[in-house]
Amino acid sequence: MGLIWDGIGQAFWLLFTGDPEIWAVTWLSLKISGGATLLSLLLGIPIGIFLALTQFPGRSITVALINTGMGLPPVVVGLFVSIFLWRSGPLGLLELLYTPTAMVIAQLVIAFPIVAGLTMAAFQTLNPNLSLQLLGIGASRSQLLWLLCKEARLPLLAAVMAGFGGVISEVGASMMVGGNIRGQTRVLTTATVLETGKGNFEIAIALGLILLILTFAVNFLLTHIQQREQLRWPKPS
Amino acid sequence: MAAKTNRGALLAALTFLLPVPLDLRAAEPAKNTILSTTTSTQDSGLLDLLVPLFEKKTGYRVKTISVGTGQALALAAKGEADVALVHAPSLEKKYLADGKLLNRRLVMYNDFMIVGPGADPAKVKAAKRSLEALKLIAGSGTRFVSRGDNSGTHNLEKSLWRQAGIEPRGAWYIESGQGMGATLGIANDRNAYTITDRATYLAFRKRLALGILLERDKPLLNIYSVMEVNPANGPRINVVGGKAFADFMVAPQTQAVIKGFGVEKYGQPLFVPVAGKREEEIGG
Fold first, then answer.
1. Which B residues in the span 205-264 are in contact with A, Cβ-Cβ below 8 Å?
2. Of the residues A143, B58, B163, B217, which has the maximum number of CB atoms within 10 A of its CB?
3. Which architecture characterizes domain B111-220 according to CATH?
4. What residues pair up with B38 in beta bridges, in sequence order?
């Protein structure tokens, strides 16, 4: 028990004394996972919408694949991304392994199916008559998509949170493709593993707490946006 | 619920996720040197001291990949690293014989110890030699935790069992598959014996009830060497950078730094520098 209090104490000490290495690690975690989440939105939302609103041969297998992908084990993603990025691998020419970019790629692979799958689910819960009505009052195709997105924004924000939560907390892929290099690719999760391995449990607890605080802050912000909109929703008469 | 607030909210959410700069790629690749090494060099903190010295001296940027010795050697043999710093002489010699790794040079050693519960049910403390100790543990069927991860430590342990003529198997033989720190933790909780390097044991000492039962036996020496990667192993190997790091590790100034490392924190040095010596001349 004393250990946990020591860890909590150390966490606040590290945060408030502005330990530059801790801040750098925290900032890098946010950049990498934020970047990966953003890219996963750019890819996942259109694909999710497409899957929700269209019919094509092979659709059900695609949906099943996306749904399976929502639970992709990060270590497996890490392994495959590593193999692709190895010097001897198909993308070796880019020399990306052990860089933050490689971590963004791996996290994108993890977050994309989550965002695509939840987007699809969000759009499928919309009333199909809504599109017909909107088209009926003369909405253009792009206006239609925008209005549907607005309609589905609560579950869409949930998709953002789930995607971000999935990547900020994963360690397996980041460790493998990033290499946990000090000052280059060390993020909160890999640093926690390292400090635990070193026997510096207080620092490991502190890093874990910082990670929780960071995740909480991001989710609090997103939840705030989500729920504020919820309250302004007019009551049905 | 004006459309404006909606868009504003969405934009706020997006801009929050935006701080991804485009310079995520590391500096010029040619200046990168990939060092594949073992967790023990990293966990002891030695590399945190040496790598910046090397970077300052040569201008290279080192990417230190700390994994088990088995993986460290495999990565180097595939040409995924430029230089290897590891501690598994028997395994290293195989890679040298295959021509995958070149120019093995001894850097330093520390030592392993057999640790176990204070009550010492297998009476290991009475043993003088490590092989004798292992026979006592196996003979009494007392729990023993193995790293089981093909690391340098695991390889040393396997070679000791082989020399003792024992095939460790059964409920008493636990394979953790984890690093040394985690393995010590398991041994501590399960009242088991294990083999550990001194540096990790010292780092974890205050949380362990395990005592040192046998130490300073020659087979327990833990010898680290540095090896360069054969440029034929694959594309894009930074041969010059790898050699520069290997040369740095055996240079007199570096060896002096190694000699003093750990004294401040643990009251004793963690590694003994041995550059230029042959394996037969070490320890005893």
1. 207, 234-237
2. B217
3. 3-Layer(aba) Sandwich (3.40)
4. B67
CB-based contact, B74 to chain A, within 8 Å: no
Q: Is residue A62 part of a domain?
A: yes
Which residues make Cβ contacts (< 8 Å) with residue A103, sequence separation at least 6? A32, A36, A173, A174, A177, A178, A185, A187
Domain tally for chain A?
Answer: 1
* pLDDT number for residue A191: 94
- Residue B255 in tokens: 């060896």
Is B43–A194 a contact, with Cβ atoms under 8 angstroms apart? yes
Spatial neighbors of A208 by CB under 8 A, at least 6 apart, are: A7, A188, A192
CB contact under 8 A, A153 and B34: no
Of B50, B44, B37, nearest in space to B225 by CA: B37
Give A16's pLDDT tier (boundaries 50, 70, 90): confident
- pLDDT of B145 strictly over 80: yes
Q: What is the pLDDT of residue B9?
A: 55
Domain-embedded: residue A173: yes
CA distance B184 to B204: 8
Provide the shortest C-alpha distance from residue B280 to chain A (in Å): 31
- Under an 8 A CB cutoff, do A38 and B21 touch? no
Interface test with B, best of A190, A225, A226 (most B CBs within 10 A): A225
Of A5-19, B130-144, B173-187, least confident by mean pLDDT is A5-19
pLDDT tops 90 at residue A145: no
Instruction: Read off the pLDDT of residues B81-93 as tens digits, 9 standing for 90 and up.
Output: 999 999 999 899 9
Report if residue A45 sits inside a domain. yes
- Min Cα distance A64 → chain B (Å) is 28
Q: What's the token pair of residue B8?
A: 């504003």
pLDDT in tens, A96-118: 999 999 999 999 999 999 999 99
Please list the residue range(s) of chain B that carry CATH number 3.40.190.10: 31-109+222-281, 111-220
User: How far B73 CA sits from the closest chain A CA (Å)?
Assistant: 15
Which residue on chain B is closest to A32 by alpha carbon? B20
Interchain CB contact of B22 with A (< 8 Å) = no
Domain that residue A110 falls in? 2-228
ipTM of model: 0.75
| Max CA pair span of chain A | 66
Nearest residue in B to A168, CA atom: B17
* Chain B nearest CA to A178, separation (Å): 9
DSSP A49-77: HHHHH---TTHHHHHHHHHHHTT--HHHH
Domain B31-109+222-281 fold: D-Maltodextrin-Binding Protein; domain 2 (3.40.190)
| CATH code, domain with A184 | 1.10.3720.10
Say if A235 falls within a structural domain.
Answer: no
Q: How far is CA B200 from the centre of its chain?
A: 10
Residue of B nearest to A228 (CA): B9
Q: What's the average model confidence in pLDDT over B59-77? A: 93
